[in-house]
Amino acid sequence: FNRKFVLGLRETEERFYLLVKESRKYRDASLNCRLRGGTLAMPKTSSLNSLLLDYISQAGLTGVYVGVQVQSKDLNGTSSYV
């Protein structure tokens, strides 16, 4: 990893979280994650959300991209995520 762009790496029991300080648009940030074999972080629990918030705060960042999952209803009433 290039230290010029990478702020740090945090490991949990299940995943690694990489903070990159290089400014990017959402699409580019997502592509960068995929090229490294990952995805944008998508916290699904309050404990993971807190962990990531602490990690981001400790790094001194004020804006970051994370993955988002929005539940919507199709015309036939079926729930789906985008």
Automatic annotation (TrEMBL):
Keywords: Lectin
GO molecular function terms attached to this record: carbohydrate binding
InterPro entries: C-type_lectin-like/link_sf, CTDL_fold
Superkingdom, taxonomy of origin: Eukaryota
Entry protein name: Collectin sub-family member 10 (C-type lectin)
Name of the gene encoding the protein in the UniProt record: COLEC10
